[in-house]
Amino acid sequence: MPDITLNAELGRASGSRASRRLRAAGRIPAIVYGHGMEALAVSVVARDLRVALNGEAGTNALLTLEADGQSYLALARVLQRDPVQGTVTHVDFQIVRRDEVISADVPVTLVGEATEVAHGDGMVEQQLFALPVRALPAKIPTGIEADVSSLTIGGSIRVADLVLPADVTTDLDPDVPVAMGQPPRVQVVGAGEGEEGAEAGAEGEAAGAEPSGEGSSAADAQG
After folding, report:
1. Burial annotation 173-200 (CB, 10 A radius, 16+ → b, else e)
2. Each residue of 5-26: b (16+ CB within 10 Å) or e?
3. What sign has the CA pseudo-torsion 26, 30, 32, 38?
4. How far is CA 100 from the centre of its chain?
5. Residue 73 and residue 136: Cα distance in Å, rounded?
6. pLDDT surpasses 60 at 198
7. DSSP string spanning 93-148?
8. In percent, how much of the chain has pLDDT > 70?
9. DSSP-derived 3-state class of residue 47
10. Domains in the chain, start-ordered, CATH in brackets?
11. First to last CA, the chain
């Protein structure tokens, strides 16, 4: 997958007030750091950043930052977002090398039909949504698929069952569940509810029996 070029502007002012002015002008404050380099305070065009990170690779997109005649190969490692609007308010770009193995979180997608689970009125419950992997920057997969076709009720698909691309590894425990076949949910009536129902029935029967007794007494009196 080719790198995405992103123009970065050096020399932004620091502080929350300056950052608000940048965002109002359509730019996002950011820093560039890594490999012993002193962190650079930069800003990028908000729209360009959104386009770069909304592609197939998502936040694992390999970026070439162009800043004041210098190029930096980087990944967007930390995205700070507005708690209400969800828009990006700050980015940390980490410099990487093409020949170094790095860590990244890759989304996990369930594929296939869990026929036995469906026939048993059960449901497939996903447990793991992102898999931490290690790979060269250009080898980071855009996603990992977990095939649930063989899943049964009470069974599970685990990390050991995932098929990873060549040169991609994970340090996660192989026994960590990715997806599980859950049995159907059955509503159980508690013993207390049954006792209350029985008591209500008994009261109803007693109430229904009282008029008949009173009628017999009256008839006997008249006779």
Report:
1. eeeeebbbbeeeeeeeeeeeeeeeeeee
2. ebebbeebeeeeeebeebbeee
3. positive
4. 28
5. 13
6. no
7. EEE--TTS-EEEEEEEEEES--HHHHHTT-EEEE--SEEEEEE-GGG--S-EEEE-
8. 82
9. helix
10. 4-96 (2.40.240.10), 103-182 (2.170.120.20)
11. 105
Residue 116 token pair: 């036995």
pLDDT of 219 above 80: no
Predicted pLDDT at 15: 83
Q: Which amino acid, 67? A: A
Measure Cα distances from 40 to 9, 29, 60, 75, 213 in Å.
10, 11, 21, 15, 96
Element (H, E) at 44: strand 37-45
Half-sphere exposure of 76 (CA within 13 A, CB side): 28
